[in-house]
Specification:
The complex is a heterodimer. By secondary structure, chain A is mainly beta. Chain A is 0% helix and 48% strand. In chain A, 35% of the residues are buried. In chain A, strands 2, 4, 5, 6, 9, 10 and 11 form a 7-stranded mixed beta sheet that branches. Chain B is mostly beta strands. Chain B contains no helices and 11 strands. In chain B, the strands form 2 sheets. In chain B, strands 2, 4, 5, 9, 10 and 11 form a 6-stranded mixed beta sheet that branches. Classes of the chains: A mainly beta, B mainly beta. The interface between A and B is medium-sized, with 27 and 26 residues.
Amino acid sequence: DTGVSQNPRHKITKRGQNVTFRCDPISEHNRLYWYRQTLGQGPEFLTYFQNEAQLEKSRLLSDRFSAERPKGSFSTLEIQRTEQGDSAMYLCASTPGDRGSNTEAFFGQGTRLTVV
Amino acid sequence: GQQLNQSPQSMFIQEGEDVSMNCTSSSIFNTWLWYKQDPGEGPVLLIALYKAGELTSNGRLTAQFGITRKDSFLNISASIPSDVGIYFCAGQLFQSGNTPLVFGKGTRLSVIA
């Protein structure tokens, strides 16, 4: 399967713990995006990378959140000191990015985080 | 942030019926995308639109990019049970530079056999 891969699929954690999610984009795609989706809502943009450079962060991305893409391939999203409000589906998407646009974003299956 | 108003919020239809849903905004977009999401899964791209007035089909799905660049619609003809899911519109704002996709809140489609 050469699609976007996310791990883990599900994560249950206690409030205050740190969690880390991984995303492996489609191999030839150089743009990678993180979105968050809560129940009954569409995905909301968090941040994106062009290769290893993090180019934009949403206001949703508090200082407890950090994302990396050290070699321009896979990316990790870490949430420190989790809160119940962090419970959501975290989605990763990738695009070729070669035309300076992020059209036709392909999504992974998501990581569902539950903070108890 | 930018808002995409997607309607209806939900639909219950009989198998075989046609479906229509739309997305509007007060802002201008240069790209419209339509996605389908099944429970517990990520969104899957259905159709991408790049030009005002463009009408594009993908099997039983047809989508159009509104002339004003502020709206788009998606039609599904002869619905079948596997069409059940949540349909999202997404757009890229018409402005310089790269902007992330903005999503609507979705239309939940239920098909009654």
